[in-house]
Design brief:
This protein is of the alpha+beta class. A hairpin with a 2-residue loop joins strand 4 and strand 5. Helices cover 23% and strands 19% of the residues. It is rod-shaped.
């Protein structure tokens, strides 16, 4: 009986030892619990320049760097572009004024043939004062030619080498002697009847050249005896 009790005590002790070893092994394998790490909250960014960040020491900027930062950036100047050359203005064309009138025939319609009478305008004006471009070397005759061509007026003349000038026989189909033995065409420049052929009188810018029909060798148009028919 005593022997059995001893064996029982030994068995209990052995079981206790095994249990103790098992607990120790389990404890060794279990990792230690770590305390939860609190999330570190970063300080908020300063809302304006110069606001200090709590807990951080503000860095001091050296005066030289501060002056450079404050100084405005250099501006590179671009030289102004040279202005484009002005386009040369077109030279205004020089002109003379040319007019053609047969108003004197209105007082002599009874002397005209029926067909010729119909050629006389009601106011006696074949060409109202019209600006005609003048070219270098133009004469009073050249201006008459250009004016008639541009206006579509018939004009007939003859060259007279003896006078060194053209002789105007008819304008607008109205000819010399249509209005009588002393009738024909004459011209005046700036109000004066030149005593020379129309091809020999040089035209100048601004001249007023008037061709008028006369029935009395110029006396009925203010020319007296100074003018020449058809000249």
């Amino acid at each position: 009986m005593k022997r059995k009790k001893q064996l029982f005590v030994l068995a209990v002790l052995a079981a206790l030892a095994v249990l103790a070893c098992a607990c120790s092994l389990q404890k060794a394998q279990t990792p230690p619990e770590t305390a939860p790490v609190e999330e570190q909250q970063l300080p908020a960014e300063p809302s304006a320049p110069g606001d200090a960040i709590p807990g951080d020491a503000a860095e001091e900027t050296p005066p030289e760097q501060a002056a450079e930062a404050a100084a405005p950036a250099p501006v590179e100047e671009t030289p102004d572009e040279a202005p484009a050359p002005a386009e040369p203005e077109e030279k205004a064309a020089s002109t003379c004024t040319v007019s053609i009138s047969c108003a004197v025939l209105l007082e002599h319609l009874d002397q005209l043939e029926a067909g010729t009478r119909e050629l006389v305008p009601g106011d006696g004006v074949l060409l109202a004062p019209t600006a005609v471009e003048i070219q270098e070397g133009d004469s009073a005759f050249d201006l008459l030619q250009r004016a008639c061509r541009e206006a579509g007026i018939h004009m007939e003349y003859q060259d007279t080498p003896g006078y060194g000038s053209a002789y105007v026989e008819g304008i607008g189909n109205l000819y010399e002697f249509d209005g009588g033995a002393l009738s024909g065409w004459m011209y005046r420049v700036n109000g004066t009847f030149p005593n020379k052929g129309c091809s020999a009188v040089a035209a100048a810018p601004g001249d007023r050249v008037e061709w008028v029909y006369t029935c009395d060798l110029g006396r009925d148009v203010g020319g007296g005896d100074s003018g020449q028919l058809g000249a």
